[in-house]
Structure formats: structure tokens, C-alpha cells
């Protein structure tokens, strides 16, 4: 998902460019001969977040005076362009920020990454047990884990409490897809736009198709499809998911012009009170304020949240979740000190502190109590109990197949394509990549 990279950036006193870092290392080679240097490549823009990391680095270095953690920064576009070359260079970082799913899988296949499975399983699996199982599973391919978990995201519904009350709809009554469709009809009958939809960038609509595939088929069906097994994306449960989405589309639930709406515009529609619901990320409450016409948006106490509904007869569990998953990919020649620092960076104490600062939804077991924002706390609680956390389909399946998933999702919900043809397009794209 290209939009995910837009959250990257710059900040902090310890940060140096890659070129500057190389010069510094050469200049200080003599003085640092007894020190293990650990190079950390990141894309963080917010100076407050970098400052929080710096504090963690200071604590670690105080406990390990023979280790020097050097934070290095690359702007997101430069990161995408230069990372493949960097991974094969003499200036390779010890670890770097990565996305789960297809992105990490492709990076693992280059031979540049270190399989961290043994590190997770050492000492009776001490490090593995420090993270939620779903977060480790999301960074694992063919039994090998390729990154240390860092943070997780969650897609769920957010709603305008005042508009729900006006329409006589109760969020707690929305448990199944049938309940959801009934709520959409009731909201629309009250003269209110049910859902803020972002069809212009397409990926926001793929959340619906993805979740419905998860609810209809469950993990077994999706895993089989992406592994080229069974009927693939032509599995009846996947076609049924498309039918469910088409059923929603027939109700015309989105605002006029949604097919051209960008995600910021969609957030603005919700923030301006012009739609009752939005299917978005954990940061929706904060982001709707930024994109509302008045810059204030809906007050936090007017926003509620509910889990994506189940589907009657579907194999998926209500505790299966969809959202982003990020980790720190460790490079082939990284030292044991690099992994030791990552274990420290992502331990429950530090993840709890970062959660309190609003930096992340934690993956460390027991750290979810650090989330103080009520809506974020709900997301953290749901994620802590996730039975299967699936990374965004358009990331997990790779860029080429992901684009088709996004296209098909929009065409199905807008009535331009039936679900079987959509499934066939995705299957054809998948086979082309094999």
C-alpha cells in the first residue's frame, strides 16, 4: 500500500543521512574499535517519536557501554528507491523498518535478510512469547520469521453517535452482515448518508472485500488461495464475499461522488458530519479532525467504534482482524547486539511507553494497557485477542495482484463487475506472478 509509506519521515538529533553516516563511521573508526556499532535505518518524520526512541537508545547504551546505536534516516521515496542497493552494499543497516506481507516476503527472498526464528525461540522461546502470536505469524513465511514485530494496525468501523441516534440505530446491535445492511437501510431512510467511501484511491474499498473474504472463508481459504492451492481465488467462499459486497453496493450507501473521493476527502466527509460511518484505521478519530472543513471535526465523545460484522454461515471468526503489521527486518550480517537491542526496543515496558505517547498499537504482550485514547484502547484490546491478524490484502499479495484486488473491489461495489468475474481477474493476476 503506497499510502502507508507517506507516514514516514524525519526528526531527531541522532539522525544522520546515509552518506553522512558512512563518513562518520570512517572518521571514528579508531575511537570506536572496541565498540559494536548497530545501524538503525528508519523513516520516522515526527520529532517527538524520534525523541522517544532516543531515550530508549540512551537507556540501552547505559546498560551496554560497548554498543553504539546509530539512527539513520532516509526519506520514504529515497528508501523505496535505495533500499535494494543498500542491502547489497558495505553500508548495509543492521535493521530497518518493514511492512508485513508481500513486501517483507520479497525482501526475504533477496537473501539479504536474517531469519530471526532461532532468536525468537532461544531460551525456551522467551522472545517469541513476548509478542502476540498474531504479530509473529504475520511476519512468518514457510515457518521462518523475517522481522521482529514492532506495531500493528486495525481496520474497523467508526460511527457518528448523533447520526446513529437520529436514525434510531444502535451500534451494539450490529453483529452480522445482515444487521449491518439493515442499519444502512435505516440510516438512509432517515435522510442520512450511511457511509463515507473513498473510491478514488480504490484501496479504502478493498477493506470491505478483504474483510468479507476473511469472514466467509476464514484463514484456511485465504491461505490456500495465496499459496496457489485448491480453487484459489475462485473458491466459492471468496465469490460469496464478492456477492456480499455487491449487495451492499446496491443500497448505494456512499456519499455522491465517492468514486472520485481521495482518502483525505473521505475522512473530511465523516469529520464534517456528512456520513454516519466510515471503515478506517485506528487513527481515524485523529485524522478526521485534520481533514474536516473546520479543522476540528467530530468531538471524540461523538465517535463510536464497532468490529467488522460476521457473516452467517461463514468460516471466519469475529476475532479475526485486518490491518497493518510492521516490524524491524534484520539484515544478514547483523550482530547479536542488533537483535538484543530490538528485543529491548520492543519489550513490554518500552512498547507501553510508546503506546502512551500515541506512537503505536503495541505487539508486546501486556503492553496494550498503555493505550490511553478510548477508541485506540478498544482497538488495542481487540488486537490483543486476535485469532488471526491479516495484513492488508493489497500488501500481502504483492503490488501487481494488490492493484487488481483494489480495482475489483471498486468495480464490484459500484455494480460494474460481478463477483465471479472479479475473482477470476484476481486469480489470473495471481497466476501471472507465479
TrEMBL record:
<comment type="similarity">
    <text>Belongs to the bacterial solute-binding protein 1 family.</text>
</comment>
<keyword id="KW-0574">Periplasm</keyword>
<dbReference type="GO" id="GO:0042597">
    <property type="term" value="C:periplasmic space"/>
</dbReference>
<dbReference type="Pfam" id="PF01547">
    <property type="entry name" value="SBP_bac_1"/>
</dbReference>
<dbReference type="InterPro" id="IPR006059">
    <property type="entry name" value="SBP"/>
</dbReference>
<dbReference type="InterPro" id="IPR050490">
    <property type="entry name" value="Bact_solute-bd_prot1"/>
</dbReference>
<feature type="signal peptide">
    <location>
        <begin position="1"/>
        <end position="34"/>
    </location>
</feature>
<keyword id="KW-0732">Signal</keyword>
<protein>
    <submittedName>
        <fullName>Probable sugar ABC transporter, substrate-binding protein</fullName>
    </submittedName>
</protein>
Amino acid at each position: 500500500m503506497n499510502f502507508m509509506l507517506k507516514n514516514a519521515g524525519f526528526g531527531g538529533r541522532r539522525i544522520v543521512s546515509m552518506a553522512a553516516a558512512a563518513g562518520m563511521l570512517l572518521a571514528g573508526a579508531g575511537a570506536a574499535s572496541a565498540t559494536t556499532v548497530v545501524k538503525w535505518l528508519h523513516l520516522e518524520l515526527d520529532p517527538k517519536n524520534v525523541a522517544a526512541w532516543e531515550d530508549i537508545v540512551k537507556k540501552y547504551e547505559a546498560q551496554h557501554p560497548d554498543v553504539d546505536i546509530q539512527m539513520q534516516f532516509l526519506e520514504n521515496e529515497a528508501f523505496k528507491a535505495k533500499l535494494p542497493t543498500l542491502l547489497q552494499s558495505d553500508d548495509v543497516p543492521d535493521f530497518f523498518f518493514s511492512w508485513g506481507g508481500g513486501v517483507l516476503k520479497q525482501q526475504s527472498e533477496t537473501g539479504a535478510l536474517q531469519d530471526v526464528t532461532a532468536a525468537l525461540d532461544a531460551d525456551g522461546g522467551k522472545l517469541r512469547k513476548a509478542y502476540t502470536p498474531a504479530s509473529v505469524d504475520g511476519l512468518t513465511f514457510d515457518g521462518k520469521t523475517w522481522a521482529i514485530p514492532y506495531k500493528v494496525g486495525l481496520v474497523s468501523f467508526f460511527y457518528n453517535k448523533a447520526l446513529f441516534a437520529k436514525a434510531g440505530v444502535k451500534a451494539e446491535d450490529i453483529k452480522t452482515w445482515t444487521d449491518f445492511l439493515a442499519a444502512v437501510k435505516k440510516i438512509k431512510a432517515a435522510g442520512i448518508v450511511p457511509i463515507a467511501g473513498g473510491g478514488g484511491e480504490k484501496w479504502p474499498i478493498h477493506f470491505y472485500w478483504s474483510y468479507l473474504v476473511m469472514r466467509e472463508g476464514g484463514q484456511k481459504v485465504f491461505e490456500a488461495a495465496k499459496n496457489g492451492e485448491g480453487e484459489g481465488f475462485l473458491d466459492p467462499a471468496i465469490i460469496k464475499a464478492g456477492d456480499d459486497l455487491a449487495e451492499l453496493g446496491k443500497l448505494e450507501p456512499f456519499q455522491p461522488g465517492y468514486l472520485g473521493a481521495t482518502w483525505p476527502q473521505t475522512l473530511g466527509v465523516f469529520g464534517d458530519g456528512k456520513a454516519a460511518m466510515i471503515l478506517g484505521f485506528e487513527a481515524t478519530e485523529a485524522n478526521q479532525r485534520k481533514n474536516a472543513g473546520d479543522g476540528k471535526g467530530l468531538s471524540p465523545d461523538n465517535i463510536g467504534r464497532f468490529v467488522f460484522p460476521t457473516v452467517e454461515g461463514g468460516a471466519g471468526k469475529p476475532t479475526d482482524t485486518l490491518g497493518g503489521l510492521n516490524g524491524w527486518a534484520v539484515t544478514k550480517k547483523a550482530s547479536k547486539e542488533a537483535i538484543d537491542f530490538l528485543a529491548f526496543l520492543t519489550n513490554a515496558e518500552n512498547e507501553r511507553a510508546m503506546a502512551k505517547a500515541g506512537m503505536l498499537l503495541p505487539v508486546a504482550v501486556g503492553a496494550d494497557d498503555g493505550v490511553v485514547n478510548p477508541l485506540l484502547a478498544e482497538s488495542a484490546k481487540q488486537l490483543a485477542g486476535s485469532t488471526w491478524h491479516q495484513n492488508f490484502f493489497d500488501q500481502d499479495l504483492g503490488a501487481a495482484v494488490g492493484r487488481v484486488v483494489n480495482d475489483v473491489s471498486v468495480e464490484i461495489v459500484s455494480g460494474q463487475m460481478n463477483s465471479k468475474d472479479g475473482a477470476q481477474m484476481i486469480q489470473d493476476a495471481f497466476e501471472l506472478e507465479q
